[in-house]
Amino acid sequence: MTGTEPENQSVESLRRKIDTIKAEVDALQIAQMEKKTPWYKSVPTIISLLALLFSFGTTLVSYNRTKSQDMLALRAELRGMLQRLASLPKENYELTKTYQQEPASAAALSGYVNQENLLLARQAAEIVLKLPKEQVSATEYYAVGQALVMSNELERAKALIGRAISASNDVNDEVAATRVNANLLFMTGQPEAGRIEYQKALGIFTKYPGYNDWTQKTYHIYTEQLWAISEASTGGVSVALSHIAAAEDLAKQLPPSPNSEQLKRQTQQYREVIQAGESLKLTPQAQP
To answer: The whole model's pTM is what?
Structure first.
């Protein structure tokens, strides 16, 4: 018994060493097999990639949702500003009527209205430039541009009126924006370019055919009236009166109606103002 114990211990020790070596060899074989396994067949790698893609996906969805909410908030803010801007000219007119016997008070109050108009117009301009172009209509560009004109922010106005023309897809928007653009060019010392724009307004129905004769003549009457105002404001009285005469000729061709009579009276009033040499600070409007 005594002689065999050391021998048994030696065998047991050898067996443990063999087991250890076998385990190490197995580990090496597994490691080697993992190295040879393509990444797309490695379960841990695939799980990690899926987790990364999921993280990117949720981040992208969150970003798009936030951006969409920001755009909706900007559009809501823009609508509120445009509504307020649309009401300011009426308020200013009512103030001048209410305080017509107190010119100093009327001027002071009108100054406050103009300050509000300028502040809102600038803020509205910043918003429409932040929004994607496809989310801003020609009417909105026009309204902000017109408000800037009223506060003598002419260069900013020209940029937005240009966008209004580009975004226009109907005769109302395009002719209104083109008229304002023409007047802006007169106001900024470019009468020749302004005349080209007024001529474009007169030719608007080549782009938008199908309107009846009454509608076309009505639009042309307004264009001729506004062209006359622009010419007179730069000292071209004789040219201005020639456009008034063109408007009068068109008005005579209209069938009798309250609207046609109103156009005739309005044209006559413009003639009287131009002939009297009164200050002309009128801005082309959207109608018709």
So the answer is: 0.71
